[in-house]
Specification:
17 strands; Rossmann fold; Dihydrodipicolinate Reductase, domain 2; homodimer; six-stranded parallel beta sheet; eleven-stranded mixed beta sheet; 15 helices; alpha/beta; 3 domains; Alpha-Beta Plaits
Chain lengths: ~450, ~450
């Protein structure tokens, strides 16, 4: 079966959690990998923490793996076929990947931050040098959804992708839903258990998920979407009251990355965003608990499909990277690098968030006076929002009430204008929250 | 990007539901397929129903596609690069695939019956001729799980695969669970809606699922498993009472194909079987409803992952076949056929069903006399089954009671011997049912 080289040599740049997981999988499963594909050896590692790294490599049996604190050594070594970039960040990593591709090496990375900004540039270098740049681990950790979109489902016109692609926020929302905790308590627990970082901004504000949406949209809709094009809204405003109402109305609240192709099938535009969503409890995404990830993909031939698994962690992410290494190794052995690359041959506009239409759940605290419902309805209709929404009213204390309503599909800008008008009403204490509601449309 | 040929030509043998779906996807999505990969054209179709087939092809815009009633015409045509076999069955299909591979063509098939019997033989021909035999559509329809196991997750030692891989039985069990119907009524509804065939034997007895288990086990555990090695038990004995008890105990009843690697990691044996199972309601497989399929895969690096979607239907199956066609086309264009093939390099034994250990739910109808529980317990312990099982007793009428118990893990042979002993007791009216119970073990 082996056409070319008898052993493929890998160099890893950056042996942190993900790099270490990759090294462990390569070491532990070397025999099955060799038997299924071709012999693959971790020949060299570049990392500045040399002493700790040497001990780690020795501990997993990789005593022959060369260690250097200079990543250029790996690029300059003609024996190394595949470079794995696991340092993260967008500066040095960009330099490393660019240099490796220019040296004609195959590159595997988990770096979503970099790809969501400069993926197009790096894939163009790979194309020019007729080599491979693979990034399965950049989206949803161990779940092989990138290859599914690029190959297994490549016969489809993709309609939409909806993903729980951030484990931290899914853990927090699962806790809130199952224990009745408020956001702050659930976040504190996530931090205590290591699911959330000390500075959780990137996760809880949706930036991490937006990077994955950018990468998935680019692949699925054949048009480059970058991080800055994806509208983001975090989960910090979700309260235990929202969780209770969601439950009562038959919904789960999930942080979703959403990407849709809209309009004309030979053109049209892309709708790409990240925000919390109420989805029906019997939707497959609603049952994805704890820190698990899942990506729900709809195509015109395959219909609805979902990919579920671990979105983070040393070994699951290592699994995805090693899957890419195996793919890159097969391409080297069979002399067919650049078998697939960037497919962004279109240049579709991304719909501004103001224009995106959704159903909305809205929770408003009002002074419970005569005419309050009429005043709300009037503010809604003045902003093109049908007043025959689902409305529920609950007394709070002596003189206040909480109004909860679910609208029909409305433009985001209209919804925001209506909420501004409502918050200006004399009868309104506060607009407590709004959350978009997604139903499966077919 | 295109290295070799400028247009890949496909020939389909058998234009029934699946072949027709494939043709439709190729026609409808030709532009995106060409832009993402390479131009692919359905050049010829072989089908005996020539008039109906011509009308179908014309109707989807494939007026240039040559139609013949002689499949040899496609094999003999040197312009045709890829043969799609969608006639089904194990005789003519075997002849067609074998001839196509021997002619050096790439072959794509959805034929699980054939692969579960003669997959090894056909893959050996592909290997010898250094060409491709792809079969994504043979397992779980549109869900790209074959490629995931062969490539994306190939860095893993697989521990287990559990799949809802038969849509008919999942539809029947979902109906029974959600409406309280008995088996016969749910089957009748499935037949009325076209989910079950007039002769539903292959589905409801688990033969169809067993074929998919044979294919998945062979790939995951690198050792050829054929249909005859997979123990099967159908769902005809499941009653609405079992559904009620399952619900009460926190379980869903699902028809699962199960494949496990057991014992020594460098050797060991395979446990492969198909039968109804009670799984906890919060297990991801428990939420897979109606005719949907899902495959739950556990590897030593990726941990738990699940692939969900349509297991049948013209377009979803067509999606999987076209994904394979694209993969085969890329290999032709990049001159790297046989990039991956059969990886059954081991020869592991399959555990006899008698030796398989499971927890069991058992429902027994007894005459409610003094000492009945003691008699049951004694029959259990005499067969190595711990008597501290979960036991529940419910009066039926004047003199009878229904005993429901859930055992610890026991050997199947011991369980069957105990049930025989129990049914021989004077106090037993009948052993009404038994169903294996699976818990997630980590």
């Amino acid at each position: 079966m082996v056409v070319g080289k008898s052993e493929i040599k890998v160099g890893i740049v950056g042996l942190g959690t993900v790099g270490g997981g990759t090294a462990t999988v390569l070491a532990q499963n070397a025999d099955v990998i060799a038997a299924r594909a071709t012999a693959i050896r971790l020949a060299a590692v570049a990392d500045i923490a040399t002493e700790k790294t040497r001990a780690f490599l020795d501990n997993i049996g990789l005593t022959d793996t060369v260690l250097t604190d200079n990543w250029h050594d790996l690029i300059d070594n003609p024996d190394i076929d595949i470079i794995v970039e696991t340092i993260g960040g967008t500066n040095l990593a960009r330099e490393v990947i660019s240099a490796a591709l220019k040296a004609g090496k195959s590159v595997v990375t988990a770096n979503k931050d970099l790809l969501a900004l400069h993926g197009g540039e790096l894939l163009a270098i790979a194309e020019e040098k007729q080599t491979d740049l693979f990034f399965e681990a950049a989206v949803a950790g161990g779940i092989p959804v990138v290859q599914a979109v690029k190959e297994g489902l490549a016969g489809n016109r993709f309609k939409s992708i909806m993903g729980i692609v951030n484990g931290t926020t899914n853990f927090i929302l699962t806790k809130m839903s199952e224990t009745g905790e408020d956001f702050a308590d659930a976040l504190a627990e996530a931090q205590r258990l290591g699911y959330a970082e000390a500075d959780p901004t990137s996760d809880i504000e949706g930036y991490d998920a937006a990077r994955k949406v950018a990468i998935l949209s680019s692949m699925a809709f054949n048009s480059r979407v970058t991080f800055d094009m994806v509208a983001c809204e975090g989960i910090t405003h979700i309260s235990k009251w929202d969780m209770r109402y969601a439950d009562e109305f038959g919904y789960a609240i999930k942080m979703l990355g959403i990407a849709r192709h809209c309009g004309d099938q030979d053109g049209g535009y892309i709708d790409a965003r990240v925000h919390p969503v109420m989805i029906p409890k019997n939707h497959p995404l609603a049952t994805v608990r704890d820190s698990y990830n899942a990506v729900y993909v709809e195509g015109n031939a395959v219909e609805k499909t979902m990919f579920y698994g671990r979105g983070a962690g040393a070994l699951p992410t290592g699994s995805a990277i090693v899957g890419d290494i195996i793919q890159a190794a097969r391409n080297i052995v069979h002399n067919c690098k650049a078998r697939w690359g960037c497919t962004c041959y279109l240049n579709l506009p991304v719909l501004p968030i103001d224009e995106v239409e959704s159903k909305y759940y809205v929770r408003i605290c009002v002074y419970d006076t005569v005419g309050v419902l009429a005043a709300l309805a009037s503010a809604l209709t003045a902003n093109n929002i049908s007043a025959d929404a689902v409305i529920q009213k609950r007394k709070i204390g002596e003189d206040k009430a909480e109004i909860v309503l679910i609208t029909h599909k409305v433009r985001h800008a209209d919804m925001m204008a209506a909420l501004k008008a409502i918050s200006d009403l004399d009868c309104t204490c506060e607009v407590s929250d709004y959350i978009r509601v997604e139903e499966d449309e077919n």
